[in-house]
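Entry for the shared binder. Reason: the reviewer on the internal report wants the predicted structure included alongside the sequence.
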Amino acid sequence: MSRADRGELTLVLHTHMPYVEGYGTWPFGEEWLWEAIATCYLPLAELLDAQAPAPLTLSVTPVLADQLQAPGVAARFAGFLRDVRRETHRRDAEGCRAGGEETMARELERAAGDYERALATVERLGSLGDDLLAPLAPHASWTSSATHAVLPLVMTDAGLRLQVESGIAAHRARFGDWAGGFWLPECAYAPWLDPLLEAAGVHATCVDLTDVLGLGDPRQLTPLQSDEGPLLVPLDRATIELVWSDGGYPAHGAYRDYHHHTTYHHRVWRNDGGLYDHDAALAQARAHAAEFVAAAIARLDAGAAALGCPALAVCALDTELLGHWWYEGVAWLGAVLEEAERQGLALASLDDALTRHEAVPVPAGGLPVTSWGSGRDLSTWDGPRVADLAWRARAAELRAFGGGRTPRPRAARELLALQSSDWAFQVSRDSAGDYPRERAAGHAAALEAALSGPPDTVARDDGTVRGLAPWLAL
């Protein structure tokens, strides 16, 4: 099938970090942000700069952008690279040599170069002050809600508008042009969101209809027109799961094992248990890129034949998978861009691709509430294990907007922080100890204080939620 007849693949990278700036260090807190900047955001920005304009879609959540532009963030990040990562790599390498592990010591010294390159980049950015968003800014085209709230769980229209409109206002203020692309946090969709999204200017969003239409169904390869709102673009799990699944590429034995680490928390082993070989891992990433592109072409060919028109496959990934969780992920992405050209696969940003694909009506009977969480429902964020968090957020929202009131900015920011999807996700996955519950409890208490205290004691910045949601839509 010809390139034009088969259609195109769009890669959507969803870039997000919970509001950890100023909230703790190791093992939970700011270190998450520092690691993501060093191992994911800066290497990715370098790749995208080399490809500009890169044929993909980058969404950056407002809450991440808030942190990347927070006062003092560049200096604290540079301090982490100089004072922590440089020293811990040195100590680990020294200990390995003392124990006769020369190969392991050399790998630690090679890996230390990742952080030295990140430090050099930050030092080059010095003229931009605290703006660590600058490397990603030229590529950011989609936005999201202010603090990554699961929108179907927000109780009130006022609360929804606060999340959605604050996120859009932040994107416009930072990046200027916006074509209406909006990432639904956790891909959590409900039909009643359509009118509100439409009113806010949202043109398109992604939805996970895997269990509605069926895995691999060709109907996953065409956009849907909602009755009262934006275009709904199905994610193509058949393509995504080549990368992001239990048996996806990052699980291959040659790649660096994320879960096992040295004394100073560095990683020198492969997934198969052997010592890590960086050159062999990069060769495997290139092989997987070639395999991915070939599989995407086959998927589009089959879809176009079934649909009778060019197909649109959306492969959406959390950006942090690339480089952070999957150490070789940025190299894999770069190889995909090269392989697409070699094999004749059309790549495009989602905004551009949607101008070439006619939407079809939603299925008869409408769409259910869906997400890309476990079970494709909302249970990750409101199931029995996290019911207390869900009810606390709902009660706080009703208190904030009760009686038709408009909360003061400090209260609104604490509510936004409390509504983040990340706290319930971390509890459901048991991935961060007591940290998410402590964060949720702290924001709930601060919200109550902001609502009940006199204005002159709650309007000031006391160091919490500093820099969060500077463009509140109140």
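Summary line for the report: The beta strands are 7-15, 57-60, 140-144, 182-183, 204-207, 224-225, 231-234, 311-318, 360-361.
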